[in-house]
Amino acid sequence: MTVSVCIPTFNSSRYLRACVDSVLRQTCQDFELVVSDCASTDDTCDIIRSYSDPRIRLFCPDRCLGMAFNLNHAAAQARGNYVKILCHDDMIEPTCLEKQVSTLDRNPALTMVTSGLRYVDANGQTLRLFIWLPEETILSTADAVAGTLVYGNVLGPPSATLLRRESLIKAGPFSDQFPQVMDLDLWLRVLALGPISYLPEPLCRFRLHPEATTERLRNTGVIRDDLRRITETMLGLVMPTRMVRRVAWGRVAGSFLKQAMAGLRSGYVRWPLAAIGQAFRIDPALAGLVLLQMLFRTGVLGITVADGTMLQVCRGQGRVGRPWAN
User: pLDDT tier at 316 (50, 70, 90 boundaries)?
Assistant: First the structure.
């Protein structure tokens, strides 16, 4: 078997059928579809049982210890050479598996492949595209860190990726120590095993909606703390210059401020004010944030990789470029 598509679910009935159908429509049909349900109280399991396709396997663990547990439980059932973790509210384009499998087959040194994204709303309508690099590119840890420090998780969510099962086993598991960025945490560990490939074509439809995990965590302060800790991890993997470090912390400060504003709009007061204070402690006078927005996000300056791990500022976008969104 070539691919195991693993869908962790929890009260996922609203978007699940569209997700499953996107898998069944793949041009690459050599796959199994593994669904691990986390004690849903809606008709999630009934939806899965309504399909007669023998490639679909449903697992209902005796207990559920959270999102990381369910992700790992789903992946543990995989029997294919490659594994795609597909979030229940996302979809993949019909040629997604075919093109990502082909990429890994052509280059045995690759540990993972990821792609551009199509953001869609709750009704599946396109909101925008997110394409980081204009052509297929093989990325090292330093390349991925350089892009992520400035632009966020450019490697994408689980639904955009396909991993070798052996890479997932060696690098895993997903860790609940990073509730909001557990995917990026794992991608960094996968990169330690070998390079990954980026495909610019948007092969995944990432759904943005009010019930999404990100929206729920935003009102708890989890997001900003995860960003702070994962940034510390990434800076420890490379050798950044002083300006690169300042810009990296400017992005974290900006995220703190963005989350604080969302909290204030939702009626919270205490933790948003604390987040604003933290932003200024991380990036005094918000100098790094100003540099980020005025010079790096506009492409006037970029970050390039030297000697494998050294991150330096350069004129223009540098090797790792900057995302194109429309």
Answer: confident
**pLDDT of 225-284, one tens digit each?**
888 999 999 999 999 999 999 999 999 999 999 889 988 988 999 889 999 999 999 999
pLDDT tens column, 78-93: 999 999 999 999 999 9
Exposed / middle / buried, residue 286 (Cβ in 10 Å: 0-12, 13-18, 19+): middle
Phi then psi for 298, rounded to 5 degrees? -90, -10
- Whether residue 182 contacts residue 176, with contact meaning beta carbons closer than 8 Å, is answered with yes
Closest among 204, 198, 201, 200 to 118, alpha carbons compared: 204
Listed residue (40, 31, 17) closest to 84, CA to CA: 31
CA neighbor of 39 nearest in space, from 63, 23, 67: 63
Terminal CA-CA length for the chain: 37
**Residue 307 buriedness (CB in 10 A; 0-12 / 13-18 / 19+):** exposed
pTM: 0.92
Output the six-digit token pair for 23: 């898998």
Q: Where are the alpha helices (DSSP H) in 29-156?
A: 44-49, 67-76, 96-106, 141-151
How large is the average pLDDT for residues 91-104? 98
Cβ neighbors of 132 (< 8 A, separation 6 or more) are 116, 147, 151, 154, 198, 200, 321, 322, 323, 324
Written as six digits, the tokens of 53 are: 């396709």
In angstroms, rounded to a whole number, what is the distance separating the alpha carbons of residues 76 and 85?
Answer: 11
d(CA 180, CA 152): 12
Contact 15, 87 (CB under 8 A): no
User: Residue 186 is encoded by which pair of tokens?
Assistant: 């794992």
Token representation of residue 145 = 């860190």
What structural domains does the chain harbor? 3-207 (3.90.550.10), 215-325 (no CATH)
Question: What does the DSSP 8-state code read for residue 134?
Answer: S
Q: Which one-letter amino acid corresponds to residue 70?
A: N
